[in-house]
């Protein structure tokens, strides 16, 4: 599309040079330049030609009436449409090349403004009587790189689907101020958005710095707390370790002696209670052993409290010590080993 605009500008340059030459003082000569420029198959933009002094001189009241219409005709080719030409009186008649050119330029404008782009709407806007003629015009515009479009004659209604339009229409001078106002307003909105984004970025950066400072402070406080806790725990561990060691040794001696926690001391003549199990019977076996062949009682896992003193008998006449253990085995019905 940009190449089409470049080609159109290049095609217009010879006509611009003719209007700036010294021989372009005659209104007839300028009118012929306009007719040739609008008939050329490669010219689609005409703003630069309109701005030349020779063309603008056609507005003078001294210009013959038959040539004044060429200035208006050039303006229609620059930014007007076929309908505008039809509705304006006093304009020169168009040859076939000019009629095709103006219809093609009008198709560019209609493709940007008319939705949907139906066959019926285009035929009415371009004064075309048959669908075949319209399709030929659209095909010419496509191959001239003026539009990117697809014909859909089978749809209801038949339409022309345009997806791209070449920037080959000039802008009316009256609309420039309005466009500048719109662009200025858009620029102000963009500036406000950019300022808001920059303010948010500054706020995020400031918050990031504050968060980093807080993280360093929390890390330092945590490291200090861990260091203080390690020192105190080492002292406590040293003091408690000796106490635990003593308790463990005392417990081992009690286990070897067969004392239960909470039992009374053997000193002073009082009896000590010892908890016996099957393992004790195995360790102190004196010839009598668990279940014999005679089917005695099973004492594995059983426990009994046996009074045992320091001597062979207590004050009550009971047997104590190893004798008491053997007597207990006999009472339980434990047979001898065979």
Q: How many strand segments?
A: 4
Order of helices and strands: HHHHHHHHHEEHEHEH
Number of helices: 12
Q: How helix-rich are the residues, as a percent range?
A: 55-70%
Question: Would you tell me the structural class of the helices and strands?
Answer: mainly alpha
Beta-sheet strand percentage? 5-15%
Family: Belongs to the CSN7/EIF3M family. CSN7 subfamily.
InterPro entries: COPS7/eIF3m (IPR045237), PCI_dom (IPR000717)
Protein name: COP9 signalosome complex subunit 7
Keywords: Signalosome
Would you write up a description of this structure?
This is COP9 signalosome complex subunit 7. There is one protein chain. The chain folds into three domains: 2-170, no CATH class; 180-216; 267-331, no CATH class. It is elongated. The strands form two sheets. Strands 1-2 form a two-stranded antiparallel sheet. A two-stranded antiparallel sheet has the order 3-4. It has helices spanning 2-19, 27-39, 47-50, 53-56, 65-79, 82-87, 96-113, 119-126, 131-143, 176-257, 278-283, 322-331, and strands spanning 147-152, 159-165, 272-275, 305-308. It is mainly alpha-helical and 338 residues long. The protein has twelve helices and four strands; from the N terminus they run H-H-H-H-H-H-H-H-H-E-E-H-E-H-E-H.
